[in-house]
Amino acid sequence: MKSFSREARSVRLRPMTQGDEALFHALYTDPETMRFVGAAWTPAEAAKRFQRILQRGQGSPPADRYLVIVGEVTPDPLGICGSSHYDPNAMRLELGMMLLPQGRRLGVGRAALGTLVDYMFRESPAVEVYARFAAVNRAAGNLMARAGFHPSPVTGKERHESATCEWSIFRSEWRMEKSINSWG
């Protein structure tokens, strides 16, 4: 993966490195952070998965890219975002984000999402990006709606029966450096 550090109004994204293992552990072993994702990992599971990610490298575009979210004012990391799955037939790319408690409710998610979507459309052939999240995670739904994402059709289940939501946006709908990064 090319070195990447794109400034947004309130965040900067950079590739995850060996020095980010404590951040990775803090996110994936914390039950509160994982409550909408699944069971929190044990420290051993987190260590194993972190090393696997680094060994795989971040050069298998466009999926498996992990970026650290850094605040504008402080160099302290606030979370991790990136792409976890790419469907080359549908040209769809799945995005995800996890924030530390100090990064929540401060507009960090909005800024990081806008920067991440810009990056993914610039660096990949994807025509659509999407995010899946627990239906009970209202903050994720609100974030997606504010960013211009829309609910994707649910296959095989009625929407009200699904525990997972999927929201997406097409390249043709997204404007690079969209104003999502602004406050308010």
From TrEMBL:
Q: Which domain of life is it from?
A: Bacteria
Q: What class of enzyme is it?
A: transferase
Q: Which SUPFAM superfamilies match?
A: Acyl-CoA N-acyltransferases (Nat)
Which PROSITE patterns does the entry link to?
A: GNAT
Q: Which InterPro entries match?
A: Acyl_CoA_acyltransferase, GNAT_dom, N-acetyltransferase
Q: Give the molecular function GO annotations.
A: acyltransferase activity, transferring groups other than amino-acyl groups
Q: Which UniProt keywords apply?
A: Acyltransferase, Transferase
Limits of the N-acetyltransferase domain: 11-181
Q: What is its EC number?
A: 2.3.-.-
Matches recorded under Pfam families: Acetyltransf_3 (PF13302)
Protein name (record): GNAT family N-acetyltransferase
Which organism does this record belong to? Rhodanobacter sp. FW102-FHT14D07
